[in-house]
TrEMBL record:
PANTHER family assigned to the protein according to its UniProt record, in alphabetical order: SUGAR-1-PHOSPHATE GUANYL TRANSFERASE (PTHR22572)
Domain Nucleotidyl transferase, residue spans: 215-305
Protein name: Nucleotidyl transferase domain-containing protein
Top-level taxon in the UniProt lineage: Bacteria
SUPFAM superfamilies per the UniProt record, alphabetical: Nucleotide-diphospho-sugar transferases (SSF53448)
Coiled-coil regions, chain positions: none
Signal peptide interval: none
Length: 434
């Protein structure tokens, strides 16, 4: 029977900017980005949770690089009711189809494809409060596609995210005022910077007026350059959450050829917008949280955002003290527990020694052993993703700060570093401040 709504998670990316965490050449146990954890749960679990909040009961997950870590994360973290299907590009001997072509091929190979599809990037954290209003507005309307758009400072958009340009006289007026300022600046860099600041402030006021509304999309500008002062760069970023009528893939199958197509450039801009099919943006409300997990710093900041209550990502354990959450099977001396500096999340089956100092802003993944008198602050200790990778120890009296530790026995103090297991089997440390 043909279902009305299903989900599709894009979890096949190569994660080049994550460095050694995801690089099989540097890390014996490379991790796919969607398997990385924010709090006690993996990103892929968060995507499935978001789909479930939308009332979706089935979802496909496209995987390729370090695919086994995504599979294990789903089994380990997924205590949800949503049913999942793995679409493994390795089985099809595909290197890279592009996101839109991947979804198109999955639909072509699915006997009972849905009428509507929600597509999520597997490496983005969204505020769960956006889920229901986003899908409700799409299902209540007649548009062929709807994109989640969120106000994002221009300095974060440049070179990294697609900017969404809206239809409407007010949007064009804001742009024309900005363009006139740029022309009047006559190449004066200081005046150009001020013109852009005024433009961004005007866009923010406009976004606040239309927050929670659905507005028609006029154009996409993919990863605009910071040096381009004259383009219509809005402060609305495409944050990788789409709802689409699946018929749009049938309509544009001919233009998604050459075995590669992405959403922004090919399906949306060259397809739907060019042929005037209704494509809209749902404008996220002010203060709604989202973060693309592109780099190790992003991963830490997403965890800090959760710890600081900027986002709600579901159950994190039992809150035994304000800002301190414990999972099942945690062994911790009462004196250590009382002296934790919140916020701290300690996942299942963790053992903590005497006189350990934890916090602030610490997430301890499943299975870690922290030796006596160790200090851990502003850090993420990742759970195991491979059956043979079970050794997770912070040795006694070591200090860990602003670090991401992926496993092994850590017998030295670590600051501003990522620790992984090299292909040779030893723990190696990499500075991630880039």
């Amino acid at each position: 029977m043909r279902s009305s709504l299903s989900g599709f998670v894009l979890a096949a990316g190569k994660a080049k900017r994550m460095g050694v965490l995801c690089d099989p050449k540097a890390n014996r146990f490379p991790i796919a980005k969607p398997a990385l954890t924010v709090g006690r749960n993996s990103l892929i679990r968060q995507q499935l949770y978001l789909l479930q909040l939308m009332g979706i009961t089935t979802a496909a997950i496209a995987v390729k690089h370090s695919a086994e870590t995504v599979r294990r994360a789903i089994v380990r973290d997924n205590n949800l009711s949503i049913k999942t299907e793995i679409f493994d590009l390795n089985d099809l001997e595909v290197e890279d189809w592009g996101a839109a072509w991947t979804v198109s091929r999955w639909l072509a190979m699915t006997p009972d494809c849905p009428e509507n599809l929600v597509v999520l990037n597997g490496d983005v954290v969204w505020d769960e409060r956006l889920a229901r209003p986003f899908i409700e507005r799409f299902l209540a309307g007649s548009d062929w596609g709807q994109i989640l758009a969120a106000h994002t400072p221009l300095e974060h958009i440049f070179g990294r995210f697609g900017a969404i340009q809206l239809k409407g006289e007010q949007a064009l007026t804001i742009y024309h005022d900005y363009l006139n300022q740029c022309r009047a600046a006559a190449g004066d860099q200081e005046k150009l910077v001020h013109a852009r600041m005024d433009y961004q402030a005007a866009w923010l006021r406009r976004v606040e007026q239309i927050a929670g509304q659905v507005v028609r999309v006029r154009h996409f500008q993919e990863k605009p350059a910071q040096s381009d002062y004259h383009s219509h760069v809005s402060s609305l970023a495409n944050v990788g959450l789409f709802a689409l009528k699946t018929g749009v893939f049938d309509r544009f199958a001919h233009s998604l050829g050459a075995d590669f197509a992405d959403f922004a450039r090919h399906l949306f801009q060259a397809g739907m917008i060019k042929e005037h099919l209704p494509l809209s943006a749902f404008i996220a409300t002010a203060g709604s949280y989202w973060r693309d997990i592109g780099t190790p710093k992003d991963l830490l900041r997403a965890n800090f955002g959760l710890l600081n209550s900027r986002i709600n990502l579901g159950y994190q354990g039992e809150e035994v003290r304000p800002g301190v959450w414990l999972g099942r099977g945690v062994e911790i001396p009462s004196a250590v527990l009382e002296q934790i500096t919140p916020p701290v999340i300690i996942s299942d089956d963790v053992m903590i020694g005497n006189k350990v100092r934890l916090g602030p802003r610490v997430v301890v993944g499943r299975g870690w052993r922290i030796g006596g008198q160790a200090r851990v602050s502003n850090s993420l200790l990742l759970p195991a993703y491979y059956p043979e990778d079970r050794n997770r120890v912070i040795a006694a009296r070591q200090a860990i700060d602003h670090a991401i530790i992926a496993g092994g026995t850590i017998d030295r103090s670590v600051e501003n570093m990522i620790a992984v297991i090299s292909p040779a089997g030893e723990v190696v440390y990499y500075d991630y401040r880039f």
